[in-house]
Amino acid sequence: MTTSSETIRVAAVQIAPDLTSKARTLDKVMSAMREAAGKGAKLVVFPETFVPWYPYFSFVLPPMLAGQEHLRLYEEAVSVPSVETAALSALARELDIVAVIGVNERDHGSLYNTQLLFDADGSLCLKRRKITPTYHERMIWGQGDGAGLKVVETAVGRVGALACWEHYNPLARYALMTQHEEIHVAQFPGSLVGPIFSEQIEVSMRHHALESGCFVVNATGWLTEEQINSISEDPKLQRGLRDGCMTCIISPEGRHVVPPLTEGEGILTADLDMRLITKRKRMMDSVGHYARPELLHLVHDTRPAKTVLPVAAPSAATTLRDADVPSQIQSEIEEPFNAG
């Protein structure tokens, strides 16, 4: 836990990807990391699946026409670990900063919406996958699991992370709240849906800060007019690729620490007065004195999802009846229902 009197400078980056090249998008990330560190930031947050780019095409193209772009996303996606993650790790260590970057992660034949958190020593202390891709995203990404719903100790304190509409899942947010996050990192694609999206983002970020009693640092992406035209030439569809930006930094009291960034590229910086966490929780601690666990509690399965559960071959003395449902598998099936 950070010292209550400590002040931490953080940065949220609103930025446009390079929609043609993972390498060039990564160059923009690393340049922004250096710029933010030069401003004194100790935590730097980038938008959702920013490397190589968010799949904006999937929001405006029907599945029959999205195949080529989907395959191109596979080709440019990031493996973990990889040359790209090693470069980000090395730069975080060099700059002595905590960096949170959204990537399209490729794991063999699947893509995932993944959040990577590099600590100031360069270690990758959190790799989590969005638990439920939203609407059009379900054609692009697989699902994450409960193992990624965790808060980690970093050089700037206890940090948790969620992506986009995961903030509409109150139990996912509560899972992080129970682990006493001090700084919550949020990431959205930006340049999507229209003005109503930025309004909804602001409500969600301010609400989570109030309910969790933590700071929220949120980064959204940005698309230029040229990029919008490259995704679709239809003016009606282009309306769905504008606005929706709300890069913001929120205090535990639900207030903007600095004015939000809703247009263009830029780096939002703010100094977080960590004393405000205790000030808020003294009045309302959702997982402490304000909780009623005997009435309401969360069951959180923290095991990584597995496609295969290896079971040793039965011995010759084992009867067919005994081998029908191996106890190892039976316990895997029953454990979530017996919890709590």
TrEMBL record:
Recorded superkingdom: Bacteria
InterPro entries in the record: C-N_Hydrolase (IPR003010), C-N_Hydrolase_sf (IPR036526), Nitrilase (IPR023919), Nitrilase/CN_hydratase_CS (IPR000132), Nitrilases_CHs (IPR044149)
Domain CN hydrolase residues, every copy: 8-274
Classification via SUPFAM superfamilies: Carbon-nitrogen hydrolase
CDD domains named among the record's database cross-references: nitrilases_CHs (cd07564)
Family: Belongs to the carbon-nitrogen hydrolase superfamily. Nitrilase family.
This protein's name: Nit6803 family nitriliase
